């Protein structure tokens, strides 16, 4: 189990970046960390990997204490792997060689088999012999993930793992990777801006704000009961509407057009979203957004209904 106990850290004395962090993660579980830019997601991964010296608190993996660079010649814990945003690959060697570098040279057959298995996970078999310098940013990102998995770490730390990968590949890669990690019982912490990493694949979600843990719960509980607009906005456009003197948060799919109601609005703009249209409308002097199956004329008068239940 990973234990993060009362962890406080700042790069300088004046500014705290991780303010009294506490949480645990069991073996094989997946955690997503979300929050606005600069809230400390990457720094948290670095602290867990042992790349910074904590100001206060301790981090343990099972019984072993994670120690910072003050205590290690080569910082970082052996049984963790960390994929940073800058990949750190060997540009002049092939994709296969980059993966094999972390596998034992004494067992060439096993090493080859494992490399093939990982090439399949990242869907890069056709590029096995391509030099890394000739790959796109997204392809390099996939190689970095495979390389981190080569030695089957006990905990994998991923910083924005799919940020450079196109949507089509992203979905299948996410499914491959997270299924593989569960099969191998590898715990995983993903720092991400992408709700899809959290909603479908994480067992737990931590939301950070102002360098503190704002909430730690399951993704579905956080999605269904966002404690404030900041949290809901991580998942979708969010409407903050006053109904009967009470402020409610509504996702766009919770607002519908009806034939008659006393909730009238005027259409401002319509955006094509593929399987639906996102409508921007004015309701009681505020802008709201909702989903609709058809486009609407600008300035059309409409009647709405709100569903608070999801
Ligand atoms: N090496 C560093 N030296 C000094 N300050 C740093 C360093 N790295 C990050 N910071 C600062 O620490 C804070 C947290 O940065 P961090 O990269 O952890 O945020 P983040 O949530 O991962 O952001 P993003 O979503 O933009 O990647 C920011 O204010 C950042 O400027």
UniProtKB/TrEMBL annotation:
Residue ranges of domain ABC transporter in the record: 2-235
SUPFAM superfamilies: P-loop containing nucleoside triphosphate hydrolases
Alphabetical keyword list: ATP-binding, Nucleotide-binding, Transport
Annotated Pfam families: ABC_tran
Entries under Gene3D superfamilies matching the protein: P-loop containing nucleotide triphosphate hydrolases (3.40.50.300)
Signal peptide range: none
Recorded GO MF terms: ATP binding; ATP hydrolysis activity
Superkingdom, natural source: Bacteria
Protein name: ABC transporter ATP-binding protein
